[in-house]
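Question (not urgent): is this output format expected?
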Amino acid sequence: MATKKPAKEQPEPASLRELLRVPEGEPVLLSSYDPESVPGLPEGLPPTKAAGVAATALMGERLAGLQERLYAASTAGDRRRLLLVLQGMDTSGKGGTVKHVIGLFNPSGCRIKAFKAPTAEERKHSFLWRIKKALPQPGEIGIFDRSQYEDVLIARVRELAPRDEIGRRYGRINRFEKSLADDGVTVVKVFLHISYEEQRRRLLKRLDNPDKHWKFSPGDIDERALWPAYQEAYELALERCSTRAAPWFVVAADRKWYRNWAISRLLLEHLEALDPHYPEADFDVAECRRRLMSG
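Got this back:
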């Protein structure tokens, strides 16, 4: 589904959950999505960095309030929680999203996990084993920087497993995510879509700044050479694993400010749909007040 030029938008932005959602079961062609586009911006909001940063900051109070309500509800037995899954090519902004978007939340209610290459212990188990260990608890917001999808992405491109085994993993992932949804987990899967040219610019910036050399590896260039294979692997993952229980969303990520705004908006929409409530007191409020005043 190509990103369409928005018609005249409403003062409150159109639902990004619908606008950016990958249709279930339909073929995906990433070249039809514009990584520089800014779909869904509300009417009157200029497509500029300054305006986007300000609009993102304005969502902070609402996001924090919903997070507190979600956590509070869990103390009364509400099992609901939210899991944000971030996937994308190198430099697409997974870490930047954690810094700028998740920074709007109370960190004590967040569970962040960055998945690297599997350890020796992890390789002894199913590829979902380490994922299950990192899931958010009721009331929490979980963030995965990479995820179970690495096992159908780099594993496919680098041929780290037989092709028929990789083929079976899509179904296992879908069943796993359906079980999460059934257990009260709202799964928000975001593919950060950057262009080949923008990745080059970001890698060059890392090379030009000695303070960023720690973020660069010569292997990044080797992975970049496999860009077409990775695009195909992502297209297959998006097509086969965008489901009703756990849809994929494609976020244009060449403009960092838009990426942050769009993901903040997606989280806001999902949390508002959950509409968690503070639990009612299970004690006599008036009596407790009387005791405090008489002491």
